[in-house]
């Protein structure tokens, strides 16, 4: 049985743990690793978001800054351009689906503030509030929900990072530290969800123990989000004739990983393929419950 939490999202409260929630991904970028360019036009992004909701996503995560492997974070995209990409999508989705839960995928405090003002409910920070020192206070002041993800280093540093002896213990310790820092800065713990950051600063082999021992992360005592959709370690596991499976051939492997995570207690699954994930959730929740 996975632990049950009440996630405070603005003035709303959402129960996590009785069933798995699906977060659908909308990348308003030209260069994301899986779907870069598909939703760069705001109308296409809106259509994608509505489609994901119709397929079963209850949260839509909108991002305008790609954190794909190798990207140089400090010299890649202006705040103005990031806002130009995401604000029309957030505003449009809020108008079309007033009850939808909208997450903004950003590590920048100014972008987070503008996105919440435009109608977003959740700040999803892949840096765990580390890259912009203003983010902890900004989120606390906004009184919005937040997702803190674990990442080692920055994307342009990943290939040079030394291996970790016990990745699960490291992630557990550092996620706890980042959550505690957010609470000290003023965000209520009831507003936080934690994400171990599959693929972010972990080499391919380090993702498998994180998947296998995911249930150990419940020791931190926060709700957990997991995003494994189409990631390279899935492609490596599906390799044939020495070649990793391409992004377009990772759906079934993704579903297997997502199902495993649900059975190990994930509260939210972040995915590109909401319909397939929703079908998997229906069965996995019966077993997990």
Question: Could you characterize what this model shows?
Answer:
This protein has 289 residues and is an alpha/beta fold. It has one domain (5-284): Alpha-Beta Barrel (TIM Barrel). It is built from nine helices and ten strands. The protein has helices spanning 42-55, 79-96, 109-118, 135-142, 167-184, 204-212, 232-237, 251-263, 274-288, and strands at residues 5-9, 12-16, 21-27, 59-63, 101-105, 122-125, 145-149, 192-195, 225-226, 268-271. Strands 8-7-6-5-4-3-10-9 form an eight-stranded parallel β-sheet. Strands 1-2 form a two-stranded antiparallel sheet. A hairpin with a 2-residue loop joins strand 1 and strand 2 (12-16). The mean pLDDT is 93.
* CATH fold-level label: TIM Barrel
Number of separate domains: 1
Task: Please give the CATH architecture.
Answer: Alpha-Beta Barrel
Separate helix tally? 9
Radius of gyration: 17 Å
Large-scale geometry:
globular
- Give the rounded overall mean pLDDT: 93
Question: Into which percent range does the helicity of residues fall?
Answer: 25-40%
Question: Helices and strands: which structural class?
Answer: alpha/beta
Secondary structure: elements and pairs:
Blueprint: E1 5-9, E2 12-16, E3 21-27, H1 42-55, E4 59-63, H2 79-96, E5 101-105, H3 109-118, E6 122-125, H4 135-142, E7 145-149, H5 167-184, E8 192-195, H6 204-212, E9 225-226, H7 232-237, H8 251-263, E10 268-271, H9 274-288
Parallel strand pairs: 3-4, 3-10, 4-5, 5-6, 6-7, 7-8, 9-10
Antiparallel strand pairs: 1-2
Helix pairs in contact: 1-2, 2-3, 3-4, 8-9
